[in-house]
Amino acid sequence: MKFNDLDLNNWKSCDINTDSLWLIASRDKSGKHRNIYHGNFIPQIPNQLIRRYTKKDDLIIDPFLGSGTTLYECEKLNRKCIGFDINESILEFVLDNFGINFDNKRYFLGNCDNTDIKKVDELLENALNKLESKKS
After folding, report:
1. Does any domain span residue 5?
2. Does residue 20 form part of some domain?
3. What is the CATH number of the domain that holds 52?
4. In this protein, which residues make up the domain named DNA methylase N-4/N-6 (predicted)?
């Protein structure tokens, strides 16, 4: 079963980092990446992982959405995304400032305390229904 869209016949020309240590010279600040929120990681990390382990239209779940680094990489790479965060104001910031169409069936954001498993299950069920995806 193929779990990504990479062409293994041309792996040497692929820009996926295959080393065990990723040396990334500088943060990608292009597009919607603004580095405005504490604790966010550089966009190259979710970009590498998403391309390595998923295919177009696969669903990514980010339980600590923050300023949306993974969400924007999902948008750029044509993946669906469910994002949760405990900080309602950062979710509002993402919704208001980054021009992503949340009315379609590709993205879902929710305010959630990830330590409340009942709330997580409820919100995840709502998100999967909205995105017309199934639990597996």
Report:
1. no
2. yes
3. 3.40.50.150
4. 15-92
Strand order in the sheet with 107-111: 59-62, 80-85, 107-111
136: in domain? no
CA distance 34 to 30: 8
pLDDT of residue 106: 93
What share of the chain in percent tops pLDDT 70?
Answer: 88
40 DSSP assignment: P
Average pLDDT estimate for 98-116: 85
Neighbouring-strand partners of residue 109: 83
Residue (of 54, 37, 38, 34) closest to 46 by Cα position: 54
The number of folded domains in the chain is 1
Query: Model pTM?
Result: 0.81
pLDDT at 58 over 70: yes
Compute the radius of gyration of the chain from its Cα atoms. Answer: 16
Which of 69, 47, 56 is closest to 106 using CA atoms? Answer: 56
